[in-house]
Amino acid sequence: MQTLKKSTKLNNVCYDIRGPVLDEAKRMEEEGHRILKLNIGNPAPFGFEAPEEILQDVLHNLPNAQGYCESKGLYSARKAVMQECQRKKIDHVSIEDIYLGNGVSELIVMAMQCLLNDGDEILIPAPDYPLWTAASRLAGGKAVHYICDEQSDWYPDLNDIRSKITSNTRGIVLINPNNPTGALYPESLLKEVIEIAREHNLVVLADEIYDKILYDDAKHTSIASLADDILFLTFNGLSKSYRVAGFRSGWMIMSGNKHNATDFIEGLNMLSSMRLCANVPSQHAIQTALGGYQSINDLVLPGGRLKDQRDLAWEMLDNIPGVSCVKPKGALYLFPKLDVKRFNIYDDEKFAYDLLKQEKMLVVQGTAFNWPEPDHFRIVSLPYVDQLEDAITRIARFLSKYKQ
Ligand code: PLP
């Protein structure tokens, strides 16, 4: 009998956040080891709870959520996203411009399927949240990575972006605030990206899922609020700011210049109908979440749990000999740099594997985020400070003796 092979469409696709090192961690857990998992940005297992009113609203509406809804999503939820657009100063967004999905993830895949023909190019940051690269390759596109510059607070290198544009480039992805670096982009930089998009007729795809997880009084600007003559797709959802990642509730907003996009919009509408609709019970969470008390602020302000954890993790990591870390301004991660000469690191997956075996701790190697060098890793800043303190002490101990 012939062996069953995955389709060749997947040959180029990878998603290493949940890759072989995680498989090994699972195996070790089955053997009875306790593994400290600093690998996934999932707030719930770290004791973060969703606002009670969101849970109550979903429970209350469960009996009304038995059927499919309109494929773009419930009117009430999309209306709430529309109001959010007003708060974010994204103009001229109607109900029809809003698509709800099973998390931002589904909508990223959908947008890439709709945008890219075989061989079309899309500019994606390095490092990136790797679903963007995976989804663009799955769609037959070519992920062209532009460098974000660690020396400049991890801002996108605009010259690198410009140098990588060809006649095949269709769009540019921005992740702001960024996963994995925690960078937050100023308005002046966003305007320069818009200028490039304008000049080359590119769609801007803005992943803003961490827009409310900001430290040190930082302010987030939605890039779509800064122009109306190019096409923007803005992605956001409830997974992080409202701590309900398991609900799978996200949205995509189309804004800006839609005049030349009728065919593209038809494609999106068709893809949206093909999956019938997103999970209906969790769509009921959106109105309450966006309209309710923004409890995420209590977590990121001084004295808030997320801020304390970010502060401690950053300081401890940055103090490890051979490690340096740009202080994150937003999101839930740290992306420290390793002195590869000092530790003789040539393979960062092996580094993550060795750390797992020795310290029973799971981090993600930088190359899983399409970072070109084996000199970074990512940890989440979600654990309580005492757990983080223990974890980073263990990383320091491990590195004090590590040579690859
Ligand atoms: N975009 C970024 C930058 C993320 O970090 C994540 C999840 O970690 C997602 C999208 C996926 O979010 P969702 O849970 O809405 O699918």
Automatic annotation (TrEMBL):
GO terms for molecular function: L-alanine:2-oxoglutarate aminotransferase activity; pyridoxal phosphate binding. Signal peptide: none annotated. Residues 35-389 form the Aminotransferase class I/classII large domain. Keywords: Aminotransferase, Pyridoxal phosphate, Transferase. It catalyses: L-alanine + 2-oxoglutarate = pyruvate + L-glutamate. Pathway: Amino-acid biosynthesis; L-alanine biosynthesis. CDD domains: AAT_like (cd00609). It holds the Pfam family Aminotran_1_2. Its cofactor is pyridoxal 5'-phosphate. It is an enzyme of class 2 (transferase). Its EC number is 2.6.1.2. It comes from the Bacteria. Belongs to the class-I pyridoxal-phosphate-dependent aminotransferase family. Homodimer. PANTHER family: GLUTAMATE-PYRUVATE AMINOTRANSFERASE ALAA. Involved in the biosynthesis of alanine. Catalyzes the transamination of pyruvate by glutamate, leading to the formation of L-alanine and 2-oxoglutarate. Is also able to catalyze the reverse reaction. This is Glutamate-pyruvate aminotransferase AlaA. It comes from Oceanospirillum sediminis. The lineage of its organism: Bacteria, Pseudomonadati, Pseudomonadota, Gammaproteobacteria, Oceanospirillales.
